[in-house]
Amino acid sequence: MTVKTRWTIAILAVVAALTVALVAQLRDISEPTATTATTRTPAAREHRDADSPAAGQGGRPARSLGPASAAGQGLGSEALRGVTVECAADGSAVDVARALAGHRVILNLWAYWCAPCAAELPAMAEYQRRVGSDVMVVTVHQDENETAALLRLADLGVRLPTLQDGRRRVAAALRVVNVMPATVVLRSDGSVAQTLPRAFASADEIAAAVGHDAG
After folding, report:
1. What is the per-residue pLDDT across 58-102, written as a single tens digit (0 to 9) for each?
2. Helices then strands (H, E): number in the chain?
3. CA 34 to CA 168: how far, in whole Å?
4. Got the DSSP string for 42-65?
5. CB-based contact 181:108 (threshold 8 Å)
6. How far is it, in rounded angstroms, from Cα 15 to Cα 66?
7. 3-state DSSP call for residue 13?
8. Which pTM was predicted?
9. Which of 19, 127, 142, 146 has the smallest count of CB within 10 Å of its CB?
10. How many CB atoms are closer than 10 A to CB 87?
11. How far apart (Å, rounded) are the C-alpha atoms in residues 206 and 189?
12. For residue 24, what are the CA distances in angstroms to 30, 38, 164, 181?
């Protein structure tokens, strides 16, 4: 066998090896492993744990919506009909339209990482204290990290009925723009009276904006 023939065979062997490696690499890219697929497309979740080790020790400072969340007192508005989220106080499922039907409601949409939201929540709690049973203030947490929301409420000393809505079902049903904080005022029949995509600094500001006496 000549030297030229040996070189030709060696070159062909190298080319064949490179071809096999390239085909294997392309197969790996076009058909990712189960681990890669899970990493790129995580399963949809309503809520998740907080990122700190102490997150699970915050308890549940939010208040339950009470019997209305289970039995209901009417069908509520068409917009919220069929919207079900979780009560942050006890983890139970809440049919939002039924839970809120028959009440004048202030829905406060927020997230634990939103600084203006944290500044506003004590004002919402104070407004609720002043108006009593005439109006029901309900906060809607719009991030999957439910535990962090509970910790934030505990830090602020705020105890209001809180819905866990990591997928923004309530906001989507009421066509609220993706701005936080945002406040939606509902009439007793469940219809929307006002949508206020702004932050409030005090209970007096809230009362002035929503038209209810907070004195």
Report:
1. 455 566 665 444 334 444 467 898 899 999 988 999 999 999 988
2. 7, 7
3. 29
4. PPP-S-B--SSGGGGGS---SBP-
5. yes
6. 73
7. helix
8. 0.69
9. 19
10. 22
11. 21
12. 10, 21, 46, 51
